[in-house]
Amino acid sequence: MLLRCTVFIHFSLCLSVLAAEVFNGNFPFPLSEGDIKALNNALSEGDIKALNNALFASDDNTEEEELITLENSIFDDECAAQTNCGDCTSKKSHFGQGCRWCPLTSGNTCYSYGDHNNPCSSEEQQTDPDQCAPLADVKKPVVILPGLIGTGLDAKLTDKKDKANPTCYETTDDFFQIWISVPQLLPVVYECTMSEWELKYDFETEEVKDNDGVEIRIHGGEANYGPSVDAVMGWEQIAHALQAKGYKLGVDLFSAPFDFRMGRKQFHDYDYPKLKNLIEEAYVNSGEQQVVLASISYGAPFGQNFLVEFVDEDWKDKYIDSWISMSGVFNGAPMVVRQLITGMPGYGIPWVDTKVLRDSMRNWPALAWLVPGLVEGGDDRVVTYTESHNYTLSEVSTLLADGGAGEAADMINKSEGMLTDADPGVKVYCWYTFNIPTEYAYAAVDAGSEPEIFYGMGDGTGDLHSLNRCDDWNDVEITLFDGLAHSAFMGNETVTEMLVELVTSA
Ligand SMILES: *[C@@H]1O[C@H](CO)[C@@H](O)[C@H](O)[C@H]1NC(C)=O
Ligand SMILES: *[C@@H]1O[C@H](CO)[C@@H](O)[C@H](O)[C@H]1NC(C)=O
Ligand SMILES: *[C@@H]1O[C@H](CO)[C@@H](O)[C@H](O)[C@H]1NC(C)=O
Q1: 145 and which of 295, 356, 419, 430 could share a cystine (Cβ 3.0–4.6 Å)?
Q2: What backbone torsions phi and psi does residue 283 show, to the nearest 5 degrees?
Q3: Measured in Å, how far apart are the chain's first and last C-alpha atoms?
Q4: CA R_g for the chain
């Protein structure tokens, strides 16, 4: 698209910001073509406009706007109104050429010939009604469970007195998107964002709440919960591939976005009751078909704990068909220990201060929940070697407390049964990568100092001992991936095809 290209060509910084958004800074460069597409998809039109406004503030902004208006007027024809492949490909656009159906990249969207907004490659777009992909006969309802940083978040500032820097706002009239939003990650501005998504933790009551003067909700609020995929990030390709097979939002396609800063306690109070209702709704709306859960990364503890602690056997037998878990971190990730103690480089964005990022996340129950623990019968291996003491998995809360992350240590100490490695009692398709070097243990002068890193096996984010917790479950089919990085499951065509195949076969 015109605007997108302008941004990409002139601003390599955008690329690093975009990459950072989708891959959490863990993704190896250079990016493949598929990744670039995923990046593009991750950005909404609004973000691009906002970014452009920020970058072109003084110069040719007006010219850009005029170009867009011009473009819109040329391509505002009947193609845009079509909602299925057959109707789309049998219509003609302004230039007398057939309209183009683009099912995979942009969902149920029909483009005019020559429209710069059309993100499809020429092989991908459909112009011949006879070639329209057949709709699936079987469409098991799918509920998407996103991962850490995988839900869009909005903030509203009611009275944020304690500002990270003088440019930060104190109040806003309404909610605005802070995650993921490119302008909110620009230099200086990002400090405001970090301070806005910080949480307060009360050691006495174990309650967490938003920072003073800030309200945070999932992007778009409750309207985006359930019959929408607008608040979950990275799932565009999968959602669009399902839609191309005839899936419909609110009928057999749903998402369960959640505030990814939160952990088990908050999920039980707030998210699990909603998820239970949503699954029941998906069952009813799809003609009493059992539901497939599809999760990535932190969606694994989120989903496992729901299935093990929140619902019973009878409920699962009635409502759940199966669970497709991708890159499921069933026992967290060692790198979370590093993130909590010394901090990790900020999403691959050069200007993000590691300590600012670390401090903003230190009170997130999510990170405490993602600290690996000692599994029953497991090896109490050393996580961090120091001159005075070697800290093993069973001592990880002491390590955190000694390293300055007292809140996370306290959360871990007080939450019994936090491990999420027990059999969830449903059919599970467990998909993970086993052979990418992954942070595994550390050596440091003391608990709080900058460590040296030891690598083990895993998917680049989660280590193998976390990803393979599902191996011994009762009803599980394991699929091992070769060299596919943690977050790269999102937007990978092979993975998407596998998922679509599973949910569209009896
Ligand atoms: C930590 O473990 C290493 C390797 O096993 C060992 O050489 C060292 O003496 C241990 N350090 C302490 C303080 O126990
Ligand atoms: C957590 O528990 C461990 C072991 O019981 C204890 O040594 C440590 O001081 C506790 N840490 C916190 C922060 O409560
Ligand atoms: C997608 O995953 C498959 C299977 O692991 C792999 O062969 C392929 O290279 C991946 N595609 C991209 C674009 O990374």
Answers
A1: 295
A2: -60, -50
A3: 39
A4: 23
Q: Which is the closest atom of ligand 3 to the Cα of 32? A: 13
- Paired residues of 226 in beta bridges: 255
3-state secondary structure (DSSP) of residue 2: helix
Decide: helix, strand or coil at residue 215: strand
Q: Report residue 69's pLDDT band, with 50, 70 and 90 as the boundaries.
A: low
Percentages helix, strand, coil for the chain (3-state, rounded to 5) are: 40, 20, 40
d(CA 453, CA 434): 19
Give the closest residue to 83 by CA, choosing from 107, 55, 58: 107
User: What are the two backbone dihedrals, phi and then psi, of residue 66, each rounded to the nearest 5 degrees?
Assistant: -65, -40
Which H or E run contains 318?
Answer: helix 313-319
Mean pLDDT of all residues in 180-192: 93
Distance 450 CA to ligand 1 centre (A): 18
Exposure of 33 in the CB half-sphere (CA atoms within 13 A): 5
Q: Give alpha helix (H) positions in 155-298.
A: 189-196, 236-244, 264-266, 272-285
What digits encode the pLDDT tens for the residues 387-438? 999 999 999 999 999 999 999 999 999 987 689 999 999 999 999 999 999 9
Q: What angle do CA 208, 210, 213 make, to 5 degrees?
A: 145
Tens-place pLDDT, residues 458-481: 999 999 999 999 999 999 999 999
> What value, to the nearest 5°, has the Cα angle with vertex 408 and ends 402 and 411?
120
Q: Where are the alpha helices (DSSP H) in 147-257?
A: 189-196, 236-244
Ligand 3 atom with the shortest distance to the CA of 433:
5
Is residue 361 packed enough to be buried (19+ CB in 10 Å), middle (13-18) or exposed (0-12)? buried
Is the CB–ligand 2 distance for residue 337 below 6 Å? no
> What's the pTM?
0.82
Closest Cα partner for 371 from 343, 404, 402, 329? 329
Q: Which listed ligand is nearest to 388 at the C-alpha? A: 1
Q: Relative to the alpha carbon of 31, which ligand is closest?
A: 3
SS3 42: helix
Phi/psi for 433 (5° steps) reads -100, 140
Distance (Å) from CA 403 to ligand 1 centroid: 18
The DSSP secondary-structure symbol of 394 reads G
